[in-house]
Fold each of these.
Amino acid sequence: MAGTSDRSTPLQAQETAQLEEHLQGWKEVILAVDQVLRWQKPWFPLAVIGFTTAVFLSLYYLDPSVLTGVSSCVVILSLADYLVPIIASKMFGSSQCKVPEQQRFHEICISLVRTYNRFVDFWRSFFHFKERRPKTYFVLVISTLLGMAWIGQQVHNLLLTHLIVTFFLLLPGVLMCVSKYTGMVRRLFRQGTKKD
């Protein structure tokens, strides 16, 4: 993207340091969630699917109103924001992480900053596209929204949301597996071309 190049490395390093400082109380939880999302154990994908299915089945069973659902989510997030750092410091102690864990936490923070910057750059380029080609923008947005409305009409919204959330939670593990196997295939092709 064009916008990514104008973000200097010192600015990205500063944003990463600020994010690391802000998430310091969540470090152990973030590292554990990272292991689950990257499928460090073979049963983690099933655990992710089971967890999301249990959450969405409970939502389906309880059938809360929008106001109740939003306020319940905000209460849960507020409690987690307050309690998780306290509980994590008591459980894991205030001792420093090992070097590999600290390095992985730093990599996660870099990845989050890069993802945020890509999203902002995409958002900006989307509105630049609107200014440059308004008719194409209009046709693209309207057709996309109509397609999404049709899909939303055909599939129950909670099922559709469950599938989307599960897809995004499984995506990091899928990408890791794909990169692992494509790397193996590349090595095999290199070995094959060297023998010829």
Amino acid sequence: MLRRMKMMKKKEELSLALLALSGKCGACGPGYPSPLEAMKGPREQLLYLPCIYRNTGIDSPDFLATVDVDPNSPHYCQVIHRLPMPNLGDELHHSGWNACSSCYGDPTKARNLLVLPSLISSRIYIVDVGSDPRAPKLHKVVEAEELSRRGNAAFPHTSHCLGSGEILISCLGDPAGNGKGTFILLDGETFEVKGNWEKGGKIPALGYDFWYQPRHKVLLSTEWGVPRILAQGFHPRDVEQGHYGRHINVWDWSSRSLLQEIDLGKGSIPLEIRFLHEPSASQGFVGCALSGEIQRFYKTPEGNWAAEKVIEVPSKKVQGWLLPDMPGLITDILISLDDRFLYFSNWIHGDVRQYDISDPKNPRLVGQVFLGGSISKGGAVTVLEDRELQDQPEPCVIQGKKIPGGPQMLQLSLDGRRLYVSTSLFSAWDRQFYPELIREGSMLLQLDVDTEKGGLAVNPKFLVDFGKEPGGPVLAHEMRYPGGDCTSDIWL
């Protein structure tokens, strides 16, 4: 009897914790009133990660993994639930929410449904994580035909919830696989495709990520590449032929029309874009994958938008690799909720970096750690000339496991003290650059963050090995907390 009472108490405590993690104030709406208030939120206990089987040789559907990250739990660092999708070959990628802090003032809204666009099949899965956060279940499937019929759109990528209750999703192209920087709107209740967000006029040739800031009446979007090209793998000739992006596209938030195209240079490939979290801020950063640059974008005194390079990761002269010059390949960036630190990953070089951006015009490197990558000692690549390092880094080994691949997706705890890192980029590119990921599966790691002076250190007690999945090695990608995070929530 006593044991049963203890179990009931534990279950009640867990339910209360999960309610807090949902970021739902019963009288307010989902999320938090400000980024600084979000930093006071509860410690994360669960992570949701899309796991991909496409291009692995395993004929199984992708699934959503629920990982226990509570160090006091007996299931710490374990996948505690798997939700398989009903189709094969989707390539789940990024995810978003039906509601977030942009709806904070609306008590009728709740963050209880995860939006999962499929990058290749163009389906959008709506997943119920509110009924039981530890065991999500499928709520609805938006078929690719709906995106095509209502918006001539395909290859959905980034999903953000809007203050209106709608869901805005950027797309990479049209149903034929051509590039097209278009957007679609979903109804936030029925998840029906309402059509395109943009209202006529010019549409960028390419699309990828986006961030919006209503106080400045602007939405900024980026460009990856032509879907039918990049889906086959990366080839340098495709950059020369203009199949990859080079612009930040500036949209008027009210008229939903394209205002500017900021050219960041041929071969830059701008991917993830982040405004500072302070909603009145008129600046932020974008990571340029191939050029190895972090560009600061900002609003000028004249009212238009511009960008300037503030960080450069030099390419390395190498032998034994695809090209004689190896880029870092910046594939993800994020900003801490207090706008003090910028983090980004170099998927090919293998390091994660932390910069102090107290002065956004002059970021200062304060933390760096190598987590695999292509230049580790003992590998196939020899570095001939390096403007940054004196020697090639040692392989990253955690709990006896040599980490395959390189650091890719990042997610920061609300308080900024823990940085989670996954190692898969995109199945076709994983297969090309890190074939060991296909054989061994990807990894989920955790870094401890010094939030006072800056600094990063591997947590040796944390490792989730997706090579040990029951269905075979799988590629885990982006991370979400049930209560939102610094890459999902936008404050108005």
Amino acid sequence: MAGSNEMTINLVVLGRTQTGKSAAGNSLLGSSDFESHHSPASVTTCCSLGRSCRISGIIRRNGCELALRVRVLDTPSYPHSGLSKKQVRDAVRSALAHHFGEEGLHLALLVLRADLPVCPDESDHTIQFIQELLGPTWKDFTAVLLTHADKAEEAGFSEEEYLHSASSTLLSLLNSVQHKYIFLDNQKSIIKEERAIVLRKLLNFIRQNNYQVLLLKHSKE
């Protein structure tokens, strides 16, 4: 974690091209560490680690306030317009082991667009990819970030109405990860208060998992 007066959480963002994965990472960090823009091709081509400054006012333990630090590993999308599945998988595995091999990973954030349907084949491929990366306990260490929630809101859906109307594929995925999901607005830069809400939700997911971490080692496969 960190020293006695602060806590560090280690996160990795995973997802398809143009889901807002890198933008979500920037929102969590409160920075613009990761390149993020619309493009006809996949933008992220290699893994990159971003670190937040000390964040206060987010977490208290045993009656004492702790400073929070967030580390986010941005990754190439899968499927990728210029890299094979093996290239993406090997790059992410290596980066996870390099950056989080000692302290462990708290959460993998699967980034999906709230304004696009999740189809069975897409979900199956994504789940298989995450299983290959994280192993059999992937469900305990995975949460879903539903980006572009502003588009769903513009279409007249509240979060509850959206989930009521969502495909069985998405609902099955959310059920698999014990309903660990967060809606994220991509329309505007996330403000401090909204970022604090998202970070508190992530910390609650980590707390529900008893602050366990997933230890990832270099694979020779």
Amino acid sequence: MDLSKAELHFMKKIPTGAEASNVLVGELDFLHQPIMAFVRLSPAVLLSGMTEVPIPTRFLFVLLGPEGKGHQYHEIGRSMMR
């Protein structure tokens, strides 16, 4: 896997054995109420394209809801990352 100069610089700052958590939120026009999932992956999995640098993902949080409340879903996603 080829890393850019910026990615290599960033990877040097990440401790060995570090794992990622991914938070995904969005709106879908066919949903009538929000659905949410919190997933722990065991073992952690390298999900290419999900993180800026290639580190394995341990946790996934997904929140999808009907259109019109995207800002609220965004804020919930932000709170999951703190």
